[in-house]
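Archive transcription. Copying these from loose printouts into the bound notebook so they stop getting lost. Printout 1 of 2:
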Amino acid sequence: MSTVNFDDVKDKFIQADVEGKIEIYTTTQGLTVEQFKELLKHFPLQHLEKLERAMG
């Protein structure tokens, strides 16, 4: 099992569009709760419902 490079994931997340952010957030494994919270800081809150549905 390879270790996730959080800095790489975070950089891709920040640069991605909303759909890309949702894809990264819902498919990346091996992150800690704190790392997921860090990603959420860079997610546009007006689209939070989309993310919640994707995780649903």
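Printout 2 of 2:
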Amino acid sequence: MQTQCAHFLQRSRSIFLLLLLVALVSCRGEEVVVLNLNSSTIERDEAELLTLTFSLSKSEEMIQVRVEASDVRYSWTLSATAGRDGRYTVGPLSMGRGVALPEGQYTLVVMLDNGQMISERFSVRRP
């Protein structure tokens, strides 16, 4: 009797784990990626301005983005919506009048409603 019970419990446990795995995989959804990330800097009114444009592999109405400077001391967090062409524009971002943007590798972090965070690196050079 114990052998049949143990076998039943082991089989039930295996089925439960399989169902849990299937549920986790199906909830994960499609991986979204950043496409065609472009950065540009210009100087205007004694301020250096950074503008980013990009698109996503899956249409999202509104997203949250964080842009971190190469030294990680400076960052901007803001919302962005896609334009008619499906591209997002972030910026212009600035350190303020008379303060240059740090050159180097920056990070763009896109935060989606489902909790997914996408990270992309890009370079910033002097205009």
